Amino acid sequence: MKTKKINITFVLPNLLPGGAERVFSFIAQNIDSKKFNATLLIIGHSKDAAYDVKDINLVFLEKTRVKDGIPALFRYISEHKPNILLSAAGHLNTVVAYMSLFFPKTKFISREVTVLSLDAAFFTTKKKKLNLLGILGKNRFNFFDKIICQSKDMQDDIHENYNIDIHKITVINNPITDGFKLKEQKTKNNPVQYITVGRLSKEKGYERILKLLCKLNFPFHYTIIGHGPEKEKLFALIESYGLRDKITHIEFTKNVAEYLEKCDFFLQGSYFEGFPNCLIESCAVGTPVLAFTAPGGTKEIIKNGVNGYLVDNEEAYFEKLSENRLWNPIAVRESVYKKFNKNYIIKQYEDLFIDILK
């Protein structure tokens, strides 16, 4: 007798370039099609899609903002009645949380992307008399059947700062997606090649990387891949440090792996992270990482001296930048494939989906 498939709808605000978008769509496409019927539902526009989605049902609501897509999302759930709905990203998770009250037969799962209390504190400049969205967002966790975090720090943050039962929260790291092949072993580049892949935003700490790079007394080149609100400020800083000729900026590319392969070190300056996909991707091709110790998933990825370094301050960061060490790409790659290979991570998602319906 055939077992009835579980119908799952994965919901994202858009398919614009971003780690959450890539990983979420990857998970949707790679769960077992013999057990699950997967639909990827995008609030945004099909013309903005940066990722190819194959072998599953793909639906675009063609709305510019999440709030504009609320009626269409409500109609979709009413008509299709998925067994499970899994959403990602803050504003969308807030909308879905309260929408769940109208669909008691559907299990609702939230996938969070950062250490929320730190994110809120980092970007709060002044207190508002009434922040309704903030209040709704803070209480959204009560309405989900399960909450997925990508790191232990994220789980602890939601448990401690939002008063949510620890058993309601599960930690599933992000997987290494396809296309990240081991680079050939080689000597260090001359000039030394550094790279950072990530959103150009305040919490990513680009300014402290630039501050240290300008002090180096040997030839180097630094590639930045990403876009975001801090672009103008960062390039003003680059000019002031006299680094313009030593930096290449690429807003978006589907060939991230090729750039990672050609570099000697991935540089992370973040003040906090949820689970930085770019770090496991860099290690997956054999390129080590230099990062500051920070809340979030970074310390679950980096093993000091094995696939890079975690340092506590700028002095130590500068010391490692200047180090003339040769790394073994095979050892760097193996350090992350043991924990974050796609088969292992996808099975964790599948087990969660089956268990939540018992």
Output the keywords:
13 strands, globular, 358 residues, six-stranded parallel sheet, alpha/beta, Rossmann fold
Structure report:
The protein has 2 domains: 186 residues, Rossmann fold, CATH 3.40.50.2000; 148 residues, Rossmann fold. Helices cover 36% and strands 18% of the residues. With 358 residues, the protein is α/β, with parallel strands linked by helices. Helix 3 crosses helix 5 and helix 10 packs across helix 13. The protein has 14 helices and 13 strands. The strands form 2 sheets. The protein has a 7-stranded parallel sheet with strand order 3-2-1-4-5-6-7, with helices on both faces. Strands 10-9-8-11-12-13 form a 6-stranded parallel sheet, with helices on both faces.
How is the secondary structure organized here?
Layout: E1 6-12, H1 19-30, E2 36-42, E3 57-60, H2 70-80, E4 84-88, H3 90-99, E5 107-111, H4 116-123, H5 132-138, E6 146-149, H6 152-161, E7 169-171, E8 192-197, H7 206-213, E9 220-225, H8 231-240, E10 247-250, H9 256-261, E11 265-268, H10 277-285, E12 289-292, H11 298-301, E13 308-311, H12 314-321, H13 329-340, H14 342-356
Parallel strand pairs: 1-2, 1-4, 2-3, 4-5, 5-6, 6-7, 8-9, 8-11, 9-10, 11-12, 12-13
InterPro entries: Glyco_trans_1, Glyco_trans_4-like_N
Pfam families: Glyco_transf_4, Glycos_transf_1
GO molecular function: glycosyltransferase activity
Short description:
With 358 residues, the chain is α/β, with parallel strands linked by helices. It contains 14 helices and 13 strands.
